[in-house]
Amino acid sequence: MIKAVIFDMDGVIIDSEPVYMARQEAYLAARGRSASRAQLNKLVGASNKDCWEMLLSLAGPEITMEELKTDYRRYQAGLPPIRYRDILNPDFCTAAGMLREKGIRLALASSSPMDHIHVVLEECGLENWFEQVVSGEQFAKSKPDPEIYLYALKKLKIGCGEAAAVEDSAYGIQAAKAAGLTCFALRENRFDFKQDKADYLIDRLSQLLNYL
Description:
Helix content: 25-40%
Shape: globular
Order of helices and strands: EHHHHHEHEHEHEE
CATH architecture of the largest domain: 3-Layer(aba) Sandwich
Strand content: 5-15%
């Protein structure tokens, strides 16, 4: 019996991935560099550490990681802030509310840094929706490594057979399945994700209620 649902954030709760990709592509163009769609797709859903490493490989050999982080953050500061409430999945609050009415506990496990997670949750008014919030930066390896989900299960004090994960990327699906969770994949056709390893493919978050 499923007692808890653990949500990914980017691509599931907020439709942030196209925004991040557009900014990464524009930044590379500003540096006189280009990247194929396949190269950019690899950034989607990656951990913060892996994303920086992949972006560095695309930015050129003349820049160090420290210089890249400083330069990219300076570039980001010159852009309009991302309005996370505007890209909140319109079905999330409905689905999450219905899950809570059924007594199903909610948690969040995101590869994003914790400070970024809290910014998103605050702007979207979701600070009090999750019993546990876990960030990939808390671990030596984030998704597709299962440690983030194993830790979330430990914090929730439940077994892997009592929890489901909601993911979109192949990295996240792999992590959830490696941790032994039932995995729902929110259908995503824009980034060539391989979602076939998920247990269920859904088009809307509210469809979770059909299975739980």
